[in-house]
């Protein structure tokens, strides 16, 4: 049974994105929500971010104009999170 899992990222981007990539091995639907934080340019973060994009996982950001993400205002994020079976905050 495929589960819908949302990973909400605020400050520990490296851990959150690494875990998100790992969760894809379970064939669950994984989406990442970057909440009020730009995507870091650190090497570990950039690598996992790129892997998620290559695996065609949705990465949403509350920051408009963030490259490689889909803009979603905070209120719309809150509404969308109701669709998920599990929400993992980081």
Explain what this protein looks like in three dimensions:
This protein has 90 residues and is α/β, with parallel strands linked by helices. It has a single domain (4-89), classed as Hypothetical Protein Ychn, Chain: A (3-Layer(aba) Sandwich). The protein has helices spanning 13-23, 43-54, 74-81, and strands at residues 4-9, 29-34, 59-61, 70-71, 86-89. Helix 1 (13-23) runs parallel beside helix 2 (43-54). It starts with a strand and ends with a strand. The mean pLDDT is 91.
List the helices and strands and how they pair.
Layout: E1 4-9, H1 13-23, E2 29-34, H2 43-54, E3 59-61, E4 70-71, H3 74-81, E5 86-89
Helix pairs in contact: 1-2
Shape verdict: globular
Largest sheet: 5 strands, parallel
**H/E topology pattern:** EHEHEEHE
* Backbone structural class: alpha/beta
Rg, alpha carbons? 12 Å
Q: Roughly how much helix do the residues carry, as a percent range? A: 25-40%
Strand content: 15-25%
In DSSP terms, counting alpha (H) and pi (I) runs of 4 or more, how many helices? Answer: 3
Key features of this structure:
single chain, 5 strands, alpha/beta, Hypothetical Protein Ychn, Chain: A, 90 residues
Describe the structure concisely:
By secondary structure, this protein is an alpha/beta fold. 34% of the residues lie in helices and 23% in strands. It has a 5-stranded parallel β-sheet with strand order 4-3-2-1-5, covered by helices on one side.
């Amino acid at each position: 049974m495929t589960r819908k899992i949302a990973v909400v990222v605020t400050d520990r981007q490296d851990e959150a994105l690494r875990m998100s990539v790992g969760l894809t091995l379970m064939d669950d639907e994984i989406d990442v929500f970057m909440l009020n934080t730009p995507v870091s340019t650190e090497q570990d973060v950039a690598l996992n971010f790129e892997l998620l994009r290559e695996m065609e996982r949705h990465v949403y950001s509350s920051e408009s104009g963030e490259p490689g993400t889909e803009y979603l205002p905070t209120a719309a994020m809150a509404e969308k999170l109701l669709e998920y079976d599990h929400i993992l905050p980081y």
